[in-house]
């Protein structure tokens, strides 16, 4: 990292770009919901319109701000700033075993989470999110599948990993114990993607 760029500076640039990007990224949802006319709701949008709006939203909220902050702070060295090592191929078997063991634990924790009774005000946004995801993930051909993959795997996946794992966990919290950095980054990721049910 360049001596004049501090982790705090990078963090502040990232948050500033994310806030501005979230504002710009919400425009497709606003425009599409206005086009539905009086009484129209966001969920009345077609699945492909929802996918496109969600893609633009994730692109502007996570992917573009992450790349912009890194490039502003590191120029051509942005990739080295977030990734100093190659993929640890000799640990692939261990990672596979960990994933196989972790899946039932994640499933059990999700089931326990669903057993907690929540008030109506907390359930309504969850139901809307579930309904929207259902529409985004309902495919009626190769075009809808491609757009869903772009929305979920590229715009959201790459952007969120870049910000939470690359910038926040590795650079901003990099001086801390790596276990603490992982837990803080995971907690902030959970708050951004807050789901109560």
The end-to-end distance, rounded to whole angstroms, is: 40 Å
Q: Give the overall average pLDDT.
A: 79
Poorly predicted ranges: none
**Count of helical regions:** 8
Shape descriptor: globular
Would you count the extended β strands for me?
Answer: 0
Strand content: under 5%
Main β sheet profile: none
**How big is the Rg?**
19 Å
Comma- or semicolon-separated keywords:
197 residues, mainly alpha, 8 helices, 75% helix, globular
How would you describe this structure to a colleague?
- There is one protein chain.
- This protein is an all-alpha fold and 197 residues long.
- Helix content is 75%, strand content 0%.
- The protein is built from eight helices and no strands.
- Helix 1 (7-25) runs antiparallel to helix 3 (47-74), helix 1 (7-25) runs antiparallel to helix 7 (142-172) and helix 7 (142-172) crosses helix 8.
- The longest helix is centred in the last third of the chain and has 31 residues, at 142-172.
- The protein starts with 6 loop residues before the first helix and ends in a 5-residue tail after the last helix.
